[in-house]
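Re: that chain you flagged

S.,

Sorry for the slow reply, it's been a week of failed gels. I finally had a moment to sit down with the sequence you sent. For the record, here it is as I used it:
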Amino acid sequence: MLTNNIGTLLYSFLKGKKIGQDKIGNKFYVHKKNKNKKWVLYKNNIDPTSIDVQWQIWLTDIKSAEPLPDKRNNFKWQKNKQANPTGTLNSYHPKISIDKRKKTITNDTKSSIWNPK
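Prediction finished late last night. Pasting the structure tokens below so you have them in one place:
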């Protein structure tokens, strides 16, 4: 399955120069003539929140150089970056039990969760 548009793939091949790739597999390009045009070809999901901070800065800042590969070790207290789970079954809600996948929210449970009193 293609995650990127065929036109974007052709444009990247003809007019773009590959700058680098992040650890997920997203590829970053810059226009051959206009160095201010930058874009990314996503590996799996088209999700801008999956891009590392260094690459996000490179995409949005005109004067920034390409990020160097991060060779630093993560501390044991650092967590991996995750997508925002709002609106999904993995979102936090105090009244829903831990086993969220089996439980669905219906109109009855919505009214019992919040009562304006």
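What I noticed first: The first strand starts at residue 16 and ends at 21.

Talk soon,
D.
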